[in-house]
Amino acid sequence: MGRAAYERLSQDRGKRSPSIANQRFDIEEYYQRNGWEFDESLNFSDDDISASKYSTKERPGYNALLATIRVGQIEAVVATEVTRLFRRVEDLLEVHAIVLDVQARSFVIETAPGGARYDLMTNEGFHNALDAVVEASRESGKISDRVRRAKRARAREGRWHGGNRPYGYERAKLILDAEGNITNRGRLVVVESEATIIRELTARILNGEALTKITADLNERKVPTATGNGRLWHPATIRNLFRSKRIAGIREDQGAEYPASWQAIITMEDFERVSLVLGDAARYVGAAKKGVRSYLLTGIVECGICGADGQTHVKLYPGAMWGKQRIKQRKYACKTLDHYGRQIGCGKIVRLADPVEALVSEAVLARFESEDLAALVAPDAPAELHELAAQLVEDRRRLEQANQDRYRRAGDPLRLDLRDFARIRAEIEDAMESVRRRMARLEQGQTLASIPIGRTLRAAWYAADLGWRRIVLSLVVERVKLLPGHPGSRLWPTEDDEHYEDILKQYPDGPWRFDGSRVVISWKV
Ligand SMILES: [Zn+2]
Fold it and tell me: What is the Å distance from ligand 1's center to 314 Cα?
């Protein structure tokens, strides 16, 4: 009984495979390592690229290989990847049928140099080979329902679906049983250094740090990404990381969830809180109107001396020199003259933008945290909006309750299992989505619908872009009046401030010599 080798030159999704010579090199080396003789008469190859575009792409080499299998001449085929050999699931099924037909005792597909072994005569081996081919053909959409069912069965076992390794994990070293079957296929093991980064990201996002800031920090620290090679982090990289429940130990498949066969890196509770923060922020990222304002309070601040309109108060000061570097400081200032040289204000008010914005942000957050969302709907808003807001608040409470019930101690009768929780959550989310759609038709409605309740609002606030913050702010703030400050009189925030650390995280330049009592907020509701 012999062992065949197979090479194929191909172009998949614009990517050219290694040359036939290179594949052959890998295979021969694999033979050598195993002490086998390379049999030239059992070497087959195809060139898919040079074949005419209009040909049916018959593979003469492959067909010759099938013929040798049919006469029971070989018991193994070596290729660089399973998909070199089987372009489609149907190819594998055909070979499977042939080896069943010739009643082979074993028929092994091996990959070199990877060293994966699939014995098509065992159930496990056949399904693992199927796995590999399915994964490769997934994008070309050629999967039959039958294969999809097989795939789902494996998802139910919590196995990794293959492909590029996800950040935080790597494939477990393959363990073979006595018959050479892989016993731990689809298992992932935690990469501790990356898990540490994931936990750090979780904490920082929940602390309200902006993704752009976190991204810059990771890149500065030269933290490697999953693909390595000096690839940089991007806010989307982080967003994607938290898009899959994998890191919380859940295997997802077509909307269903199964306990994964690998370890969780963060808790499900943290995962959901991060999703909430990122989701709510994402809702408004990029939604800002044209001509994005770079100041939170443009149009809302006014001069406390002359009452000049807020629109004229934005100014980027050249600032002081620090060594050879000019420090730009954002300031709100009463402008004396407009572009045409006409007098528009007294020019007597100049205040650092950071502490003013931090102070107003804190006041707004405190307002939203202490009051019912529904109570923040303007009194003159349509009755329907009041009702919808109340409905949304109620739905969110139910969702939080379900979340809590899910993490009750084992044995607690109120504890929700994964399946019930998923069902209840889907139900509530459907209800919320429909409320949101109805709200979005109304003025104020869309913004209200996007405001998370409770402790996650602060995080969402800082993760969201300026446009969203301005809209949320405009729901409750009428005007912010800037009175002349008395710099040097006191520091703000003070260490006994409840949110001292949160504020400094957002504004590392603080605390400032700044008198908060000289900023007067007038509220809408
Ligand atoms: Zn003024």
Answer: 12
* Residue position matching structure tokens 């590029």: 164
Structure tokens, 22:
């290179």
Tell how far the Cα of 348 is from the centroid of ligand 1, in angstroms. Answer: 6
CATH superfamily of 188-279: Putative Large Serine Recombinase; Chain B, Domain 2 (3.90.1750.20)
Q: From ligand 1's centre to the CA of 263, what distance in Å?
A: 61
pLDDT of residue 143: 45
Cis bond leading into 511, ω under 30°? yes
Which pLDDT does position 128 carry in this prediction?
85
Predicted pLDDT of residue 5: 95
Ligand 1 center to 305 CA (angstroms) = 5
**How far apart are the CA of 329 and the centre of ligand 1, in A?**
20
Token pair for 485:
């400050």
E strand segments, 101-207: 108-111, 117-119, 169-171, 188-190
So where are the chain's domains? Answer: 2-152, 188-279, 291-361+450-525
User: What local confidence, expressed as pLDDT, does residue 147 receive?
Assistant: 63
What would the two tokens of residue 84 be? 């070199």
For the chain, which residues score pLDDT lower than 50?
A: 52-55, 139-140, 142-143, 282-293, 312-314, 316, 318-321
> Separation of 266 CA from ligand 1 center, angstroms?
52
Domain 2-152 in this protein, CATH class: alpha beta
* Residue 307 CA to ligand 1 centre (angstroms): 6
Assign residue 102 a region (left: φ > 0; alpha: ψ between -120 and 50; beta: otherwise): alpha
Q: What is the pLDDT of residue 57?
A: 56
Q: Could you tell me the distance, in angstroms and rounded to a whole number, from the CA of residue 300 to the centre of ligand 1?
A: 14
pLDDT at 53: 41
* Ligand 1 center–CA 344 separation, angstroms: 8
Model pLDDT for residues 18-27, shown as the tens digit of each residue: 788 888 888 8
Inter-helix orientation angle 145-156/123-137, to 10°: 110
**What are the tens digits of pLDDT across the range 169-214?**
988 887 777 777 777 777 889 999 999 999 999 998 887 777 878 8
Distance 517 CA to ligand 1 centre (A): 18
Mind giving me the DSSP string for 3-36? EEEEEEE-EETTEEPPPHHHHHHHHHHHHHHHTP
pLDDT for 312 equals 45
- Contact 150/127 with Cβ under 8 angstroms? yes
- Has this prediction a pTM greater than 0.85? no
Q: How far is the CA of 492 from the centre of ligand 1 (A)?
A: 24
Q: How many CB atoms lie within 10 A of CB 190?
A: 16
> How remote is the CA of residue 508 from the centroid of ligand 1, in Å?
29
